[in-house]
Design a protein that fits this description.
This protein has 170 residues and is an alpha+beta fold. The chain contains two helices and eight strands. It has a five-stranded antiparallel beta sheet with strand order 6-5-4-7-8. A hairpin with a 5-residue loop joins strand 5 and strand 6. The chain is elongated, with a radius of gyration of 27 Å.
């Protein structure tokens, strides 16, 4: 109640910039006082939209500078489920790791409370979404080693071919 007889609605997505709130009871309770700003007044439908998170700066502006696509960061695995995992990059920032990016170098899967390096695959400030991968870190190293090995083998084969051609000329 804003003033006696006038109510407004704070949409669940306007409670916090960082927390994924599933139910308002996770954030506040009935009769609690909450500072809000008026976001919209819809006179035709007699509705007032309110926001709480708008009282603070959007931290995603800073996160965009701190968590850069293609860079690696240490993170703690918070949750593992069928479609992937949720990791904590910092106290306020979580990222999603798709299932195919949850494998470790030894073939096992990441587990809750593990602290590992993750590469940021995608950062979306607009959607407040970060995608990360653990697998990409060592897969890239394995690919580089494989390419090096193939290159060494090709060079050895070429040298053998050249030696063979030289020896048949004499």
């Amino acid at each position: 109640e804003l003033v006696e007889g006038i109510d407004g609605l704070v949409h669940i997505s306007d409670l916090s910039w960082t927390k994924k709130i599933k139910h308002p009871a996770e954030f506040t309770q009935v009769d609690a006082k909450l500072n809000v700003v008026v976001l919209e007044i819809d006179k035709a439908n007699r509705k007032i939209s309110l926001g709480h998170k708008q009282l603070n700066e959007n931290p995603w502006d800073d996160y965009a500078k701190k968590f850069i696509s293609g860079q690696d960061y240490e993170a703690t695995v918070k949750e593992v489920f069928d479609k992937g995992a949720v990791i904590s990059l910092s106290e306020e920032v979580e990222a999603f790791v798709p299932k195919r990016h949850c494998n470790k170098e030894n073939g096992s899967s990441i587990t809750v409370d593990e602290v590992l390096n993750f590469r940021i695959l995608e950062f979306s400030k607009e959607n407040k979404k970060i995608l990360a991968s653990h697998t990409a870190i060592f897969r890239e190293e394995l690919e580089a080693e494989r390419k090096k090995s193939v290159s060494v083998t090709k060079n050895a084969m070429k040298k053998m071919e050249d030696d063979k051609q030289k020896s048949t000329l004499g």
